[in-house]
Amino acid sequence: YLEPVSSGVVPASSTQTTLLCYPNPATTLLSIENSIGTLLITDPLGRAYSVPRNGNTLDVSLLPAGIYFIVDGGSTTGTPHSAKFVKE
Length: 88
Hints:
There is one protein chain. This protein is an all-beta fold. The protein is built from no helices and eight strands. The strands form two sheets. Strands 1-2-6-5 form a four-stranded antiparallel sheet, with no helix packed on it. A hairpin with a 5-residue loop joins strand 3 and strand 4 (48-49). The chain starts with 19 loop residues before the first strand and ends with a strand.
């Protein structure tokens, strides 16, 4: 006879939306969904990059190839959201 034992890990139930970006990897344009506030694009070393934005589309064609993070300021929720993308 075996009794079920809880693992002690409770899955987080999140009502927050996540920041989505596609296509990933990107070459010229990157589309963003669920963007709430201003966007900040950084590399793993913390350097910030400015890219042209047209609505929910970012022009990443001038970024060097590598890994980048997009952070949404979360101006209405107070909680920033982030996503990672690769620039080819």
